[in-house]
Design goal:
Number of strands of chain B: 2
Organism (chain A): Streptomyces dengpaensis
Number of helices of chain A: 14
Protein name (chain A): Branched-chain amino acid ABC transporter substrate-binding protein
Shape of chain B: globular
Helix content of chain A: 40-55%
Largest interface: A-B, 39 and 41 residues
Helix content of chain B: over 70%
Distance between the termini of chain A: 37 Å
Shape of chain A: globular
Low-confidence stretches of chain B: none
Strand order of the largest sheet of chain A: 2-1-3-4-5
Family (chain A): Belongs to the leucine-binding protein family.
Strand order of the largest sheet of chain B: 1-2
Mean pLDDT of chain A: 90
Order of helices and strands of chain B: HHHHEEHHHHHHH
Radius of gyration of chain A: 21 Å
Order of helices and strands of chain A: HEHEHEHEEHEHEHEHEHHEHHHEEEEEH
Low-confidence stretches of chain A: 1-30
Strand content of chain A: 15-25%
Structural class of chain A: alpha/beta
Radius of gyration of chain B: 19 Å
Distance between the termini of chain B: 49 Å
Largest sheet of chain B: 2 strands, antiparallel
Oligomer: heterodimer
Mean pLDDT of chain B: 91
Number of strands of chain A: 15
InterPro entries (chain A): BCAA_transport (IPR051010), Leu-bd (IPR028081), Peripla_BP_I (IPR028082)
Largest sheet of chain A: 5 strands, parallel
Keywords (chain A): Signal
Chain lengths: ~425, ~290
């Protein structure tokens, strides 16, 4: 304990020193690419619990965007010298902070991508602002990135807790799941999700009977599952806001405690294909959740997903698709600006309206750097209806861009 | 009241996992003076063993319950013979680092092969719940509690009622004196290590139907189990088992009444116990 603490203190001290020495970063002449090179840094979880959702797949997606960009522009590209670098932040904010500084300052990254784990993503947003370099978050769900912690250098590309809550929380309540019992992991992601889900459920005329923070990570949710049927009034819905392995634990134990037979349905905050595989599509069949994108959405999505699978051997998550989308638009903006200077690139991005295989009816809002786009209420497919291995998702409803995301937060002040 | 009893029972179920794991750690530490950091990895391998048996050979839960602990116990004895024994004469730190390294290697190999997401396991042997009078409880979890209590009792009987048990206990508590009586304690080291490893594997197989099976499941759990062993008293078999069940209950009730404290409660209890009894509840202070 003491050891971690002192390491943390040391990291903060080193960070402070670097910030002091770094000054404003290198100043590049206008109309030129700094060091004659564009460096895209993927800061992600390369080996931990989010390595399959983001991880090596995110690095590959950004590399794919670079390859496609080079192919498209050939020698007309602003520079042919485009590099993708990666680093592992282990889902820890202090490691993310150090790695982001390392990537911006020493490895000369012009933009960072990905960054799962909300607390780590917030740390990187701070570093981006101090270093005056761009950061495209695709993997973390916290609404703070485009809210209280928004800044001119940080973009929110894929999804957030509000979007998940507006989809699942509101729709499940409208369909009759009025009384909710919520369990959420006790860290930035879970707390934010809980707040947004509570608002969405109440907004749709439902009631949150009780909400409990659960230890993170944890392998035993029995206490909460036992408690659920005894609550007054009895909940219709168990809102499980856990992710990854924790979520698999919740679902397995939800099954054993037979809560469905006791009239308590399961609603899940954030669900990935790997989670569905882990607990079995048959057990989850019919469970609704909200997603920013899925690979089998339509022809465009499938075409890109096929190319991704050729390179990696697996189907992409929405985070991988968002990384490709963000990296592509970043490179296009550099091309248009003729420079990788963050402020000039930003001018090309802000306010942009676009459509790509990932983001439909998308607008990049200049006031908070949130990309709003269509989101999807989906349910887990009956395994009998799956057309191939990994085909888990079925569309229920498209949530239009202006409903899927919150209005710009009054807490966001860009400066 | 019902919910209190229900949660106490629930705590005993997760306590059963702690007890099985702590029991293995305690006998290994007692006999070999090795703090086996690979114990969590063995628990994880046990759960993966069940998954692999089902996927590749179509062998269900009962086969896994029998074969996986045996296979890992054998692997454990080999490990003891080939590596741990060679470092036994050196500073205990060497074996600590060795087992820690083994745990990391196991975890990373599994992650390379299976990724970090959880693995599906469909072979739960019991479904439905059983009526326990005041409340009902999932049949499988009642089974898990029964197995862990039965195994702990059996080990306790062997240790207290048989000649082998007497030797192991003597060697655990007073190694020099036992040797002075002409008893070859070295013979027992390898089987005891294998047995401890087998117990952790058993816990892993039991976990597969009710917990997420992934490469980090052992690493997350082992820290709590070490706290359990320290609270019970390092090397005290009885203390470890008792502390395992107590911590299980404490966490379950903590989750219910003071959720924020549920994870730290173990370490708070550990701090309090160590302040009052530096060798743990049932540990004996060792004088060099």
């Amino acid at each position: 304990m003491k050891r971690t603490l002192s390491t943390g203190v040391a990291a903060v001290a080193v960070g402070a020193l670097l910030a002091g020495c770094g000054g404003g970063g290198p100043s590049s002449g206008s109309g030129k690419v700094s060091d004659d090179k564009i460096v895209l840094g993927v800061l992600t979880d390369l080996s931990g619990i989010y390595a399959d959702i983001a991880g090596p797949g995110s690095v590959e997606a950004v590399q794919m965007a670079v390859d496609d960009f080079k192919k498209k522009y050939g020698d007309k590209a602003v520079t042919e010298n485009i590099e993708v670098i990666k680093a592992d932040h282990q889902n820890k904010p202090e490691v993310a902070n150090t790695q982001a500084r390392e990537m911006y300052d020493r490895k000369r990254a012009d933009a960072l991508f990905d960054v799962p784990t909300s607390s780590a993503a917030l740390a990187v947003a701070t570093v981006a602002q101090q270093s005056k370099r761009l950061y495209f978050n695709t993997a973390a769900a916290t609404t703070e990135l485009a809210g209280k912690s928004c800044n001119p250098y940080t973009y929110e590309w894929a999804y957030d807790a509000y979007m998940l809550a507006q989809g699942t929380g509101a729709k499940v309540t409208e369909q009759g799941g009025k009384n909710w019992y919520m369990i959420y992991p006790d860290y930035a992601f879970g707390q934010d999700m809980q707040a947004k889900f509570t608002t969405a459920v109440q907004g749709a005329g439902g009631t949150v009977v009780a909400k409990d923070p659960t230890p993170f990570p944890s392998d035993n949710y029995s206490t909460f599952l036992l408690k659920a049927p005894g609550l007054k009034p009895k909940p219709d819905v168990l809102g499980a806001l856990q992710a990854g392995g924790d979520l698999a634990n919740v679902v397995k134990q939800y099954e054993q405690f037979k809560l469905k037979d006791k009239g308590i349905e399961l609603a899940i905050g954030l669900l990935f294909d790997s989670d569905i595989k882990a607990v079995g599509a048959d057990k989850l069949a019919g469970t609704m959740f909200t997603t920013a994108w899925y690979w089998n959405l339509d022809d465009d999505s499938r075409a890109w997903a096929d190319r991704f699978k050729e390179r990696t051997g697996q189907r992409p998550t929405f985070d991988h698709a968002a990384d490709y989308s963000a990296a592509t638009h970043y490179l296009e903006a550099v091309q248009k600006a003729g420079t990788d200077k963050a402020e000039d690139v930003s001018k090309k991005l802000d306010g942009m309206k676009f459509n790509d295989f990932f983001a439909r009816n998308a607008t990049l809002r200049a006031e908070d750097h949130r990309v709003v786009h269509d989101a999807y209420l989906v349910k887990v497919k009956d395994p009998a209806k799956a057309t191939e291995d990994g085909d888990f998702t079925e569309l229920v409803d498209t949530i239009p861009a202006d409903e899927a995301f919150d209005k710009p937060s009054p807490d966001c002040r860009m400066n | 009241m019902t919910s209190f009893l229900q949660q106490t029972f629930n705590g005993l179920v997760s306590g059963g996992f702690y007890a099985l794991l702590a029991l293995g750690l305690a006998v290994i530490f007692g006999m070999l003076r090795v703090v086996n950091f690979a114990h969590g990895a063995v628990y994880m391998l046990g759960a993966f063993g069940a998954v692999v048996l089902a996927d590749s050979a179509g062998l269900g839960f009962w086969w896994a319950l029998l074969l996986v602990p045996l296979a890992l116990a054998v692997a454990g004895t080999l490990l003891e013979r080939l590596l741990i024994r060679r470092l036994a004469a050196l500073d205990p730190l060497y074996n600590f680092l060795l087992t820690f390294g083994i745990a990391l290697v196991c975890q990373d190999l599994l992650r390379m092969k299976y990724g970090s997401h959880s693995q599906p396991y469909e072979d739960a042997p019991f479904t439905g719940s059983v009526d326990l009078g005041l409340f009902d409880f999932p049949r499988y979890q009642v089974f898990v509690l029964a197995v862990s209590v039965a195994v702990c009792l059996a080990v306790w009987l062997v240790l207290t009622r048989t000649r082998v048990g007497t030797i192991v206990r003597a060697a655990t508590e007073r190694p020099e004196l036992t040797r002075a009586f002409g008893i070859d304690t070295g013979r027992w080291v390898t089987p005891v290590f294998g047995f401890g490893v087998g117990l952790a594997a058993l816990a892993g197989v039991l976990a597969a139907p009710m917990r997420a099976v992934n490469s980090s499941m052992g690493g997350d759990l082992i820290i709590t189990v070490f706290a359990v062993v320290v609270i019970g008293g390092l090397g005290s078999v009885f203390g470890s088992v008792l502390a395992g069940f107590v911590i299980g209950m404490l966490q379950a009730l903590g989750n219910l009444y003071v959720p924020v404290l549920s994870q730290t409660s173990v370490f708070l209890l550990m701090a309090v116990v160590l302040l009052i009894r530096p060798a743990g509840l049932f540990g004996k202070e060792e004088h060099a």
